[in-house]
Specification:
This protein has about 425 residues and is of the alpha+beta class. The protein is about 15% helix and about 35% strand.
């Protein structure tokens, strides 16, 4: 098996995302027999003469009843070339916060539009969020192409409009691909369609099998948020002190010089323990326990980083927020900032601007940020935080904003990230 690729879907409601995901699962033979039988029964009860592939993904009872996606559904499928983790994100405006969750780790996004309606407000909103989150590759799937009689002119018009929008968001032409598909019938999803002789480039699955997913990795050194300090205090391990967590960025090797933040003390990695036993090297995404040469005061919430290139330690944060709560944001608001394994009180000191994802314009000094707004703000944290710019390291450049009163998530934050508009004239 080849690379593991993280994939997400996006687009407006009823554009067929769940059906497309179901088609991918079904045609790649990634559906268990009992799952398929349950969907066949459910399809029959709903009066459908054909298999309703969306039911393979819409797992919540409310989703099946309404025929919509509410939560992010994670599914796994594979081809001979690659394995995929797919997040099927909801299309409704009120569930945009769930779409952010599904897209934040994606390497490729498939954004659907209905061939009958083309690019809509929510399509442009999702494209802007994908640009903001740094998803490096986009696929525009012009779905339900059968309902416009497989018209090449309709496809070309939609693809041109979407490409112009993504170009203004900063995506180069080569990172955006448009494909005409019919998820219900399978046209150009896994197999080429005889109904689109005018379309000669790969099918969706062929593109996903070959799209470059490397070269967009973190450009920072080791970033290791300490989640737990392991002190067995047993006769077998009388002096064992290990620092457990998941590597957010970079690679660590026994013998590396590291720095513990926020204290700034330095040490050397003397050992690495993994679930499979001791190892000499570990990299991004692995959960390990680091052993240090010196007996230091390290606790949950600290960050172990490459000594030669540590993150900056600051209490003043300029960031872009995706506001995810009904309660609006305003200057002077008291919040909690959760960065890695560290949570500290903070104050929203200023709202600098709000992004209009429809016009690609920035509105200076807004009075507030409402649900689903994207805005640039400054915050002051009560304690220093070790931060990287999001563009250089996703893992250590992102944080959550939390309501201190009830613990609900208010926003996702991206350190130093500019609003997702580079040049609106590039269309």
């Amino acid at each position: 098996m080849g690379d593991l690729v993280r994939l997400t879907t996006a687009g407006s409601v009823d554009d067929g995302k769940s059906t497309l995901v179901g088609r991918l699962l079904y045609d790649t033979r990634s559906v268990l027999a009992d799952q398929l039988a349950a969907v066949q029964d459910a399809s029959a009860r709903r009066g459908s003469a054909t298999l309703d592939l969306a039911l393979l993904v819409d797992g919540l009872r409310a989703e099946r009843a309404q025929g919509i996606t509410i939560d992010v559904a994670y599914r796994y499928f594979a081809t001979p070339a690659r394995s995929f983790i797919l997040a099927d994100a909801p299309g409704h405006v009120q569930y945009t916060r769930n779409m952010v969750t599904g897209a934040c780790t994606a390497q490729v996004a498939v954004l659907l539009v209905d061939a009958r309606t083309g690019v809509l407000e929510q399509t442009r909103r999702h494209a802007a969020i994908l640009a903001l989150l740094g998803v490096p590759r986009l696929v525009l799937a012009v779905n339900k192409i059968d309902l416009v009689d497989y018209d090449e002119a309709v496809f070309a018009r939609i693809a041109k409009e979407f490409t112009a929008h993504t170009l203004a968001l900063g995506y180069p032409h080569e990172r955006v691909v448009s494909i005409p598909v019919c998820a219900l019938l399978g046209d150009n999803v896994v197999d080429p369609s005889a109904h689109t002789p005018w379309y000669a480039v790969p099918t969706l699955i062929e593109h996903l099998d070959t799209v470059p997913v490397h070269g967009d990795a973190n450009r920072v050194g080791l970033r290791f948020p300490v989640q737990y300090v392991i002190r067995p205090r047993t006769p077998e391990y009388p002096d064992y002190r290990g620092y457990a967590g998941q590597i957010a960025a970079g690679t660590v090797t026994v013998g590396d010089q590291v720095m513990v933040l926020p204290s700034g003390v330095r040490s050397t990695v003397s050992g690495i323990d993994s679930p499979h036993g001791p190892c000499t090297t570990a990299t991004t995404g692995q959960s390990v326990t680091l052993l240090l040469a010196e007996d230091l005061d390290v606790s949950r919430g600290d960050l172990i980083a490459t000594a030669a290139a540590p993150p900056r330690l600051t209490q003043q944060v300029t960031a872009t927020l995706c506001w995810l709560a009904q309660r609006p944001a305003h200057a002077g608001m008291r919040v909690l900032v959760k960065h890695g394994t560290r949570t500290v009180p903070a104050l929203v000191t200023a709202l600098l601007s709000r992004f209009d994802e429809q016009t690609l314009c920035s509105i200076d000094a807004p009075e507030s940020l409402a649900l689903n707004d994207i805005g640039r703000v400054t915050l002051r944290s009560a304690q220093p935080l070790p931060l990287d710019d999001y563009a250089h390291g996703r893992g250590n450049g992102a944080f959550l904003v939390i309501d201190p009163a009830d613990g609900t998530t208010l926003a996702g934050g991206l350190v130093g990230a500019p609003l997702p508009v580079l040049d609106p004239t590039r269309t």
